[in-house]
Each structure stands twice: as C-alpha cells, then as structure tokens.
Amino acid sequence: MTPDADSWARAALCLRLLLSAPGYLAGASIRMRASPDRDRLLSILQPLNMRRIHPSISDEQLFGGLDLSATLNYSQVIENKGILSDPRTMVVGMAERCGGDLAAKLAHQMDRDIGHCLIALDEGAEPDETLPPALAERLPFHIAPEGRMPKDWRVVPAGTLSVTPAAVSASATDAETLVLLAAQFGIDSLRVPLMALRVARVHAATHKRTSLEQTDLEVAACLVFPHRATRLPQAEPENEAPPPSNPETGQEAESDASSRMPEGDMLVEAVRALLPPDLLAGLVPAGTGRRTGGDGAGQKRKGNRRGRPLPSRPGRLDGRSRIDLIATLRAAAPWQPIRREAQPNTPGLLIRPSDIRLKRYVEQSDRLLIFTVDASGSAAVSRLNEAKGAVELLLAQAYAARDHVALISFRGSTADLLLPPTRSLVQTKRRLASLPGGGGTPLATGLQHALALATQTRSKGLTPTLIVLTDGRANIALDGSTNRTQAMEDAEQMAHVFRAHGIQTLVIDMSARPQATLKALAGQFDGQYLPLPRADAQALTGAVSAALQG
User: Fold this and answer.
1) Runs of H (alpha helix) within 401-515
2) Which one of 74, 260, 272, 474 is most buried, counting C-beta atoms within 10 A?
C-alpha cells in the first residue's frame, strides 16, 4: 500500500471509531483545505447531527442567555439553552484561527466528560498555523490524509455496539504499556495515553470483545501517538550485558520500564513507521505550534460598532452607542415585582436609566511596518548592505506574522516610496536588493514621506510602526537646502509630529559608532534606539525583534 493510500486507510479507521462512540472519544481534528475530498469525508459524519460553530461565536450562543419573549410575558428572568447545554457534535470551521478564549471554553466543556464531540477543521496553510494547544491535546485523532482520495475509499460502518466501550476491561499492564510508549516518543501529557486507552476500548467494542488485546493497543497507538511524537525512541546498545539473575528465585531482574511492555518492540516499530519524515529536523507536535496569524498584530481598538464583542457596560443613550437589549432586560427583570408594586397601573416592562447596558466591541487591526532606509553616501560607506540583509530577515518574519510592509528610501534631496503597503515578500526583497546608495541625507524628507503614508494607512484601519535605518548625519533640510543644523532641526520637528500621532518608532543606528545625536532623536520620537551591532544580520534581526516586542 502506498503512503497516500495508507493515510486514507487510517482516516477511514478514525472515522469508523468516531462514528461508533463520538461522545466517548470526544472528537478529531481534520487538517484539510476546503475541497470535494473534505466534503465527502464530512458527509460520512452526517449521522452525528453536527452543529457548526464559528470562531467568533458569542457566549450567549454557546451557554445560553435570556429568553426575551418569555421574560417579557412572565416578568421574570427565563433563560434559553445554548449549544453546549446538551451533549452534541460541534464542528469548528477555520479552527486554526480559534482564539484562546473560545478554545478554553470548549476545552472546559470537554473536560466535563458529558458526551460532547468536537470536529475541528484545520485549514492552516503554513506548518505553524495549527489548532490551539488546549483543543489539540483533547482530540485523540488527527486526520490529515495525503494525496487524492482513492476511488475505492469508503468507511465501513461498525453498526450498533453490542459492548459499551466503558465496559471493556483493561488491565494495569495495558495502561502501563501505553504510558511507557508515550514516554518513549517524548509525549509528556497524561491525557494522551488516556485517550489512547479509550480508542483501544472502542476498537475492541467494535469487534465485540470485552477485554483488550494486543491488536487494540497497536491500533490505538498508531492513531493517537505519531502526530504528537517529539523524538525517536532511544535504541538499546546491542552489546549490553544481560541483567543479573536473582539467585533466590532464578528469575532475571528487570532492567528498565520498557522491558515490562508486552511485545513493546512491535508497538514502538508500529508507531515509528508512521512518524513524519521531518521529526529529527525539529518536530512541532500537532496543535502546539505558535500561531502567528489570525488575531492581528496591531492595536486593539474599542468601540460600539464592530469587532469582537466585549461584556456590556452601564451607560446612557447618546444617539451613537448601541444598546445591549438582552443585558438591559437581564438587569431590569429582577426589579419588576418591586417596581410593579410602586406603579401598578403602568403597562409593560418597567425599565430605569440605571438598567441601560451598552454594547462594546474590540477590533484588532493589522500592523504595517514602514521601513525608512537611509541610502545616502555616508550610509553606504558604513553598513548599508548589512542593513539590507537584516531588513530582509525582518521581512520574512513580518510575512509569517501577516504584517503589511512598506519601503521608503531617502538619498540626495528626495525620498521615494519604493514599495507601497503589501504582503508580497518576493516583491519586497526585489526592491530592497536594487536599492542604490549615494548622495546627501534628507532625513526629514524621508520622515515626512513616512508620516504621510502612516496617516493614510491608519485611516484605512492599519496600525503603522516606523523603523528608521540611518547613520543620523542629516545634511539636507526640508526646503532642499544643504544645511546640517537646519536638517537636524527639521528631523526633530518631524519626530515630535510622530510622537503626537502616537506612532511606535524604532531607530536603528547604522553608523560605525553609536551617535549621541541619533539616540537623542529617538528620544524625540519617544521610541526605541538600537545601535547596529557588530554582528551578522541574524543577530541584528533578533535584537530588532526583541525591541519591537518589548
């Protein structure tokens, strides 16, 4: 069987076990892009009566909330049920963008072990775009078939289980086998062998067995462990002396924990055969990689129109704010009996100004990194090429974080926008490599162009961040005259304007020795000053990244 066909066979086995006991196994993650193959795979799960959940679902939809019509009719708080009120199968689309708050809520419900089943659709395009760790740790199966679906691929239904999985007996040796096997592959979460034990029980129940066999343990280990492994098991030395015998019992002493595993070598080899090929190159367990996209990297802006909902707050109607009707009724309902006694002839619900609750939202914008590079003659003499290499590495990090980047260069008496805001890494590298050097240093003019771009993009919802690479030897003023004193005064004036606009700024000193004037200019920006270290571009990248995150 080819590797692609083998991956589809494992997917069919996972689906068969999941259909047999969805509430007992708790779910699976499916890492596939939207395609007819994924649609067919999901159609097999239709008997589970799935309910789709969007990553931005509200708490009222999840946990329930106030039943408005019933509350108005009976003048008392009556709540309706949410999606999580009863055990059900939930499907989370774009699960790689699931926020930490929603992941924690879903994980808490799964820990209650009341029969919820979660199908997480992972559509990440990059290796680090994965499920939140809280969800990945609680889902036994990771379905990621390779290649096209075979024409004869199908899932054989298990039918009604005559033996409930919880009734399948497992010995202490079975549990110890799975725990020791997980430890050998670097899996440090105790949830994983527990999930593997459940999978083994379901597999035994589908074959009408009341106790676990070696086959059940092997299937469970092959389905649960490979995508979570972080290392290969250590091979025992071939010339190792046999353990000493006990003279009283005549039995050999146990050398280590792995010798107690029944047919442990077969289990290890079965899991080893399914490990990804890049494990030794630095494997990141499924669902534990750092997520770099989805939530944006810009500023969080609170408002009352759009964005992620926040808890409502008391307030008064001003014609612009949006009233949270449910929260308002929730605040007013407990006081209705008292208010009805005071105003018995007033019809309807009695609402006071203190009951008013206003909606709030938080919206996180994308970040725009505006690289303003000094390409003058003095900068070229110092380390312009090294600065180019550092910026190129920073651009790669910005691309991974889904930041927008823009490139402005200044030399002679003018400044040019070489690249408008974009996410194209290839185009940015091409423009940066062709950046020439020579001429005067119109620092203020470069800052003026950067300010215009920052103001324009901020009005479009981006959060601009300025990164200035210069040697600080400004000699061209804003009016184009060659006047070093006036040029520095103009640059300081532009720095005050950036500070007034609240634009985060990082000034990188490209000169051979740190310049006190440039450090003072960074203080005018109320930004950070970073002298270019005498190291390679990789070291500079780490320093700049730490400064931006600090």
Assistant:
1) 425-433, 443-458, 484-500
2) 474
Give the integer Cα–Cα distance in Å for 34 and 50: 17
Q: What is the mean pLDDT of residues 459-475?
A: 85
Identify the domain containing residue 181 by its residue range: 163-233+259-285
Tokens representing 284 are 């990141």
pLDDT confidence bin for 391, thresholds 50/70/90: low
Neighbours of 358 (CB within 10 A): 19
250 occurs within a structural domain: no
Residues of the chain with pLDDT > 90, as a percent, come to: 18
Residues 316 and 437 reside in one and the same domain: no
Is residue 398 located within the same domain as residue 478? yes
| C-alpha–C-alpha distance, residues 6 and 346, integer Å | 72
- End-to-end, the C-alpha distance of the chain in Å comes to 52
Residue 236 parent element (H or E): none
State whether the Cα torsion 244-250-251-253 is positive or negative.
negative
CA distance 169 to 211: 5
Could you tell me if residue 70 is inside a domain? no
Contact 411, 437 (CB under 8 A): yes
Task: Give one word for 55, left, alpha or beta, with left for phi > 0 and alpha for psi -120 to 50.
Answer: alpha
Specify whether 270 is located in the same domain as 338: no
Task: Calculate Rg over the CA atoms of the chain.
Answer: 31
Domain count along the chain: 4
Q: Residue 206: what are its φ and ψ, rounded to 5°?
A: -65, -20
Is the pLDDT assigned to residue 272 strictly greater than 80? no
Contact 515, 491 (CB under 8 A): no
Beta-sheet strand order (sheet of 51-53): 51-53, 89-92, 117-122, 27-31, 141-143
Question: Is 287's pLDDT higher than 60?
Answer: no
Strand duo 89-92 + 141-143: pairing: unpaired
- Tokens matching residue 375: 């390409």
Is 393 found in the same domain as 457?
Answer: yes
| 434 inside domain | yes
- Give the 3-state DSSP-derived string for 15-30, with helices as H, strands as E and coil as C: HHHHHHCHHHHCEEEE
For residue 290, pLDDT beyond 50: no
- Supply the pLDDT for residue 473: 85
> In the structure encoding, which two tokens stand for residue 233, read together?
């098991």
> Per-residue pLDDT tens for 16-67?
999 999 999 999 999 988 888 888 989 998 888 888 888 878 887 888 877 7
pLDDT of 534 above 70: no
pLDDT of residue 401: 66
Q: What is the pTM of this model?
A: 0.50
Which residue bears the tokens 């490990």? 275
Shared domain for 17 and 116, answered yes or no, is yes
Under DSSP, is residue 80 helix (H, G, I), strand (E, B) or coil?
strand
Q: Is residue 238 part of a domain?
A: no
